[in-house]
Amino acid sequence: MSSVIHPRPRRLSRIQLKQRLRTVRPQQAKKARTARRQLERIHQQLPKNVHAVFDPLEPAFSRPTHRRFVLLALAAILTLGGRTVANLLRVVGGLVPGHPTSFHRVFSRDRWTSSPLARRYVAAVLSRFAPRGPILLAGDDTVTEHLGPYVYGKGRHRDPVRSTHSYTAFRWGHKWVVLALLAPVPWARPEPPAGPFPESEVPSEML
Fold first, then answer.
1. Best CA proximity match to 195, nearest among 206, 185, 205
2. 163-201 core/surface letters (b: 16 or more CB in 10 A; e: else)
3. 39: exposed, middle or buried (Cβ count in 10 Å: 0-12, 13-18, 19+)
4. What per-residue confidence (pLDDT) applies to 198?
5. For a 10 Å CB count at each end of the chain, is N or C smaller?
6. Separation CA 111–CA 117 (nearest Å)
7. What was the pLDDT predicted at 207?
8. In the prediction, which pLDDT does 206 show?
9. Residues 179, 126, 183, 143: what is their CA dihedral angle, to the nearest 10 degrees?
10. pLDDT of residue 51
11. What distance in Å separates the CA atoms of residue 20 and residue 75, rounded to the nearest whole number?
12. What pLDDT is attached to residue 108?
């Protein structure tokens, strides 16, 4: 059986490499400018509710990074299964102009930090749902399993879902603590406490 042998690519000299870079870099810059214009056009066409949620976060990013971050966040809402960047890009399809690596760089190389982003996000949530009065919070922790030998920051945590009173289950991975804001709903009120009274005979002081 004959086999197909692919010839090795010819190695370019230093002068040939510089000449190729002179022609390739302007093309890449032109494609990047076109992608940024398309991102801006897509961002302007998003619904007002999306702008109300994500526009307060814009100062934490550069302008192109913010546009890509919004598309990835919307794709994460629609994605089922693993929410990797590659899977998010498959979901949104044609709404991601530019090279896919530009979206990977949002989390790997772009210059933004989570602390200013978290402060702006908390300020936006409080101004919208708790502009005045006391702030009621609820906390919860979730263990996510990561067994890889090179996972940064993993530890051995108690799994409250699989554990019982007589058995403690542990999982290797990260423990994420969720802090939620308890926002009052104007048209709802707390249910009366359960007791021996029928609902129509609950004493008024218990309502």
1. 206
2. eeeeeeeebebbeeeeeeeeeeeeeeeeeeeeeeeeeee
3. buried
4. 52
5. N
6. 12
7. 47
8. 45
9. -10
10. 92
11. 37
12. 85
The amino acid that residue 111 corresponds to is: R
Residues in the chain predicted with pLDDT less than 70, given as ranges, are 1-6, 190-207
Domain boundaries, the chain: 14-114, 132-207
Residue type, 51: H
Phi, psi of 176 (to 5 degrees): -100, 130
